[in-house]
Amino acid sequence: MQNKKSFMLLFVFVFVLAAVLSACGSNHNAGGNTGASNTPSEGSAEQTSGGTGEALVIKMLLVGGKPIEYDTVFGELNKKLKEKVNATVEAEFLDWSDWTQKYPLKFAASEDFDIAYTANWAFYNDQALKGGFLELTDEMLKKNMPLTWEAMPAVAWEQSKVNGKQYMVPNNNPEVIDKAVLIREDLRKKYNLDPVNSPETFANYVKTVAANEKGINAYNAKAADGWKWHELDQILLEQQNEWNLVDYSMPLAYKLDDASGKVFNVYDTPEFAELLNYYKDLADNNAWSKNVVSNKNDVWQDMKAGKTASYSHNLGTLAMNLAELRREQPEVELAIADLTPDKKKIAAISTQNGFAVHATSKKAERSLMVLDLLQNDKEIHDLFMYGIAGTHYEAVGEDKFNATAGTPNYTGFSNWGANSPLNRKDASYPAEADAIATEWEQKVYNFELETFVFNDANVKNEVANVGNVMLRYAIPLEYGLIKDIDKGRADLIKQLKAAGIDKLQTELQSQIDAFLASK
Q: Which of 8, 287, 310, 413 has a CA 20 to 30 Å removed from the CA of 116?
């Protein structure tokens, strides 16, 4: 789109076409709702044809640190948004260190904002059930988000409903969510070790590094605020056993291939008992620091500085780390290790990232128009996701980019809510990461409960109490920091009983049974 006139012609054409398609019975069923929109009024100037009336400032709540050059990038972004939908965006950032506390308080206090980043791990279900998000009807989405309505797969809308209602504009970029490990491949080769591709070869690697490389943590992790599982658990407990933890705030899971969805306490399984022996062996061989449970350092920065020899994360993050070090320290060789290569893989449902409209917003329609462009307008998507071309990234064709010296000045926050097919891939993205992703995609396992969402309304106290027990008793035990692991496990299970784990499990099983019965 070269100018405003051509954009408006195209916009009207797209909108009319969307209306015609919807009248003919589009397959994109966003919410299964009919009738008038309950959108708060934006004034008589707001037209059903997509007219935008008076200029509005849309307030956006984002998770992550404020980028260094936020003002510069959003200044350019707002010029484009003003031109296209007569709106500008003003963002507030909740830093990673305290967002879990501040995010729900924003809703509880009914603070003034219009759009919020949300996800299945970032209060989506909780706020949808509490009334923090505005219900988005088919009519609202068709009218205000014609590009998204046409581009979004029907399954993505279905996956992001809560109790049959739509509260999120989900991201449109499916990915496998398994975790992997980044290792110092040069150290593996130095000690002539087998390739790291299993729990056993990983243990051999970290124990060897710990025994021979002084001043280096063989494995490290960051103590995330309120996080109750470390990422090795996700690999060695969840992925290795082909289980699905229903919610990371509790130790309840089911087997992926169990059609009945029978729930069990993972701490009360022989698999967990065996894993504790594995962890204890690593801890006794100094695979990680005794202070790992309270580590606040950026683990990737420690790895870049030569202080850490391995850490775990999602594949995309590890791939970007690998590409970064190849640019900055080509003499250091890293590798991505998949410790569960033969296991079933789980694809992220659409609620992995997304945006919602605050229930109290008086600018809901314009907010949706903005979200429509952030996800589906190439020019605006590039600005929001990557910054200013030539400054924060170098465009390579239509779908790739090269990092620049300015890249670190616009990164690290939750713009992923706008992930879409328009995303660019780093031109230096490692080929081996692409190969792993391709393998994983061929092993994605779809199961009946993948869209199940637990409603904790009846057991909130039990959820909180169980979570506190996990933080106090489970994490030190899993890092092998408890001398008598059998006693430690028995204490953990006893404390969970006192915290109400049985009531919680019964409630969860009841909801799963009802969900499966409704299929």
A: 8
CATH numbers and ranges of domains, the chain = 179-348+431-451 (3.40.190.10)
Nearest to residue 183, comparing CAs of 84, 321, 22? Answer: 321
pTM: 0.69
- Interatomic CA distance for residues 58 and 85, integer angstroms: 11
Query: How distant, in Å, are the alpha carbons of 26, 103, 167 from that of 109?
Result: 39, 10, 20
**Local structure of 355: helix, strand or coil:** strand
Q: What is the DSSP string of 98-152?
A: THHHHHHHHHHTT-S-SEEEEBTTBBHHHHHHHT-B----HHHHHHH-HHHHHHS
163 CB-contact burial (10 Å; exposed 0-12 / middle 13-18 / buried 19+): exposed
Residue 461 identity (one-letter amino acid):
N
Q: What are the distances in angstroms from CA 101 to CA 98, 415, 460?
A: 6, 20, 16
Q: Where are the beta strands (DSSP E) in 207-344?
A: 243-245, 252-255, 264-265, 310-314, 334-337
Task: In whole angstroms, give the CA distance from residue 512 to residue 65.
Answer: 37
Rg, Å, the chain Cα set: 24
Averaged pLDDT, groups of 10, the chain, 519 residues long: 37 35 34 36 37 89 97 98 98 94 97 96 93 98 98 91 93 89 98 98 98 96 72 93 92 96 98 97 95 88 96 92 92 97 91 96 98 98 98 96 94 95 91 93 88 88 95 93 96 98 98 92
* Distance from C-alpha of 261 to C-alpha of 270, rounded to nearest angstrom: 19
Range 186-196 burial, b when 16+ CB lie within 10 A, else e? ebbeeeeeeeb
Best CA proximity match to 42, nearest among 490, 370, 401: 370
- Report the distance separating Cα 114 and Cα 359, nearest Å: 8
